[in-house]
């Protein structure tokens, strides 16, 4: 299982990759494994404002439905439309083509509340 | 927490383990969908040793079985199995179960989550009967081998002609040189067998490995409880705790076929006769979701013309059909196959259609 060093993580198993004032958000390899086969992802409309820790969508696996939580506050710049047709990308490439949303960060200081790769690995015991 | 005979095998196979009915059970090994499809197309092996087994023996064993179950056990010949239910006096379901007619006793197989409740219930109904109830659950391991290639897999390991073992029959014989009950039963709708044998790790591992090797040419896969659930739901089989429980009765659950009023008295007879006479008010139905990628879940509301008419008892994505399927109780007037209903999914009314079950035609 991999946890890239260049990402920040939430305790709820999302990751965010910072590029300047934007952040790409997805769920971790651990999370996709726990969920199992993803069959549906409900993502927010572009332009929506999300707050750190708030639910921004849902992810549905064969067994169960889970909420997705925003790692930081921001405005949704993009949702991964590819997941409408191929939700299993979240399983196959959780850090790549299975990304969920792109945010424009409004409170960059909130990044300090997130975990680095090592702390996240400690959290999940891997 | 308890572990079955196969716990170490599950760990070695990298299964995700969850607590279920007091046991550490494998919920999935790699992917629920892959496991599900392996059973539909080839063969899968399931550890279901958490299920409970009771022996009922004594001169009046049949009378006791007849008293506590709804189906007619007097019709069972040695070597035959029967699906049945136990009810409270008000007709509410205590559990659904399998009844095996052995040479000189009965074996009943109950849901793990109901084991203690069932055992206490049966015992409390012995009264003056010459019958004993013995809980053998910890002594018996249970493997299910299910799928179109199950017979070819197991045939390599036994001299018994498995093709001659008809549906809901069993033989007591050797398989992989171990004495066991080989039962042509299952919870998947596929050709399949359930093997009951002594719960000893060395024996269990020997059988698991023998079956795994015999099934290798068919790409046999270990199957977790999650795929067991999607497999049974595609067949419209009830799951206790979801689709049936003490607040539901066999008649509304579509289990009238295992409720044999003419066999004589049994616990629940009077209440169920009355319900039958008056007509049931609601009925367990199957439905399919009309929209893509919208899946019903346990507890979701069922609506008709904007009004709540019941709740989803079981729901999932059907791996075979690739649509949402589910079951739930609705008012009898809405229960006709072909009727349009709605399911409240993510706070949105989603169109669904009542269908006859099974969802997949075998």
Quick tags:
heterodimer; A: 126 residues; alpha+beta; OB fold (Dihydrolipoamide Acetyltransferase, E2P); six-stranded antiparallel sheet; three-stranded antiparallel sheet; 4 helices; 9 strands; 18% helix; 35% strand; globular; B: 362 residues; Gyrase A, domain 2; Alpha-Beta Plaits; Elongation Factor Tu (Ef-tu), domain 3; 3 domains; six-stranded mixed sheet; six-stranded antiparallel barrel
Overview of the structural elements:
- The complex is a heterodimer of chains A (126) and B (362).
- Chain A is an alpha+beta fold and 126 residues long.
- Chain A has four helices and nine strands.
- The longest helix of chain A is centred in the last third of the chain and has 8 residues, at 117-124.
- The radius of gyration of chain A is 13 Å and the shape is globular.
- Chain B has eight helices and 19 strands.
- Chain B is α+β, with helices and mostly antiparallel strands.
- The mean pLDDT of chain B is 97.
- In chain B, helix 2 (32-41) crosses helix 7 (225-234).
- Chain B has a six-stranded mixed beta sheet with strand order 10-11-12-9-3-13.
CATH H-tier superfamily of chain A: RNA polymerase II/Efflux pump adaptor protein, barrel-sandwich hybrid domain
Secondary-structure element order of chain B, as H and E? HEEHEEHEEEHEEHEEEHEHHEEEEEE
Biggest beta-sheet profile of chain A: 6 strands, antiparallel
What strand line-up does the widest sheet of chain B have? 10-11-12-9-3-13
Strand content of chain B: 25-35%
Which oligomerization state do the chains in this entry correspond to? Answer: heterodimer
Number of helices, counting only DSSP H or I runs of 4 residues or more of chain B:
8
Report on the biggest sheet of chain B. Answer: 6 strands, mixed
């Amino acid at each position: 299982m991999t946890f890239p060093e260049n990402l920040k993580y939430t305790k709820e198993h999302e990751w965010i990759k910072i590029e300047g004032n934007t952040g790409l958000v997805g769920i971790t390899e651990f999370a996709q494994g726990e969920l199992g086969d993803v069959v549906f992802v409900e993502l927010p409309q572009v332009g929506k404002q999300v707050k750190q820790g708030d639910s921004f969508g849902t992810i549905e696996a064969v067994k169960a439905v889970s909420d997705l939580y925003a790692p930081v506050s921001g405005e949704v710049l993009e949702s991964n439309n590819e997941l409408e047709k191929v939700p299993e990308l979240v399983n196959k490439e959780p850090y790549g083509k299975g990304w969920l949303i792109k945010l424009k960060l409004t409170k960059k200081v909130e990044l300090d509340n997130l975990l680095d790769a090592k702390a996240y690995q400690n959290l999940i015991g891997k | 927490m308890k572990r079955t005979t196969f716990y170490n095998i599950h760990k070695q196979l990298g299964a995700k383990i969850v607590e279920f009915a007091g046991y550490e059970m494998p919920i999935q090994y790699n992917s629920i969908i892959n496991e599900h499809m392996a059973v539909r197309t080839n063969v899968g092996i399931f550890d279901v040793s958490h299920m409970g087994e009771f022996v009922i023996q004594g001169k009046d064993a049949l009378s006791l079985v007849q008293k506590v179950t709804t189906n007619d056990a007097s019709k069972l010949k040695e070597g035959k199995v029967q699906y049945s239910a136990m009810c409270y006096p008000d007709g509410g379901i205590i559990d659904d179960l399998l009844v095996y007619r052995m040479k000189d006793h009965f074996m009943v197989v109950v849901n793990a989550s109901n084991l203690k409740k069932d055992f206490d219930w049966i015992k409390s109904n012995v009264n003056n009967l010459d019958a004993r109830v013995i809980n053998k659950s910890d002594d018996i391991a249970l493997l299910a081998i299910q799928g179109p290639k199950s017979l070819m897999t197991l045939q390599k390991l036994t001299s018994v002609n498995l093709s001659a073992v008809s549906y809901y029959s069993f033989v007591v014989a050797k398989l992989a040189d171990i004495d066991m009950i080989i039962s042509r039963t299952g919870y998947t709708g596929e050709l399949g067998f359930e093997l009951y044998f002594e719960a000893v790790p060395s024996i269990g591992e020997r059988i698991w490995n023998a079956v795994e090797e015999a099934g290798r040419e068919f790409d046999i896969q270990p199957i977790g409880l999650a795929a067991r659930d999607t497999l049974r739901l595609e067949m419209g089989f009830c799951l206790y705790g979801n689709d049936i429980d003490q607040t539901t009765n066999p008649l509304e659950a579509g289990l009238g076929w295992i409720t044999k009023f003419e066999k004589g008295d049994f616990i629940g007879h009077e209440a169920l006769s009355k319900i039958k006479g008056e007509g049931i008010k609601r009925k367990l139905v199957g439905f399919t979701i009309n929209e893509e990628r919208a899946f019903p879940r346990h507890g979701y509301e069922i609506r008709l013309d904007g009004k709540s008419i019941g709740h989803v008892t079981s729901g999932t994505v059907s791996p075979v059909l690739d649509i949402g399927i589910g079951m739930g109780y609705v008012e009898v007037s809405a229960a006709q196959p072909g009727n349009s209903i709605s399911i409240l999914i993510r706070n949105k009314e989603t169109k669904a259609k009542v269908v006859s079950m099974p969802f997949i035609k075998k």
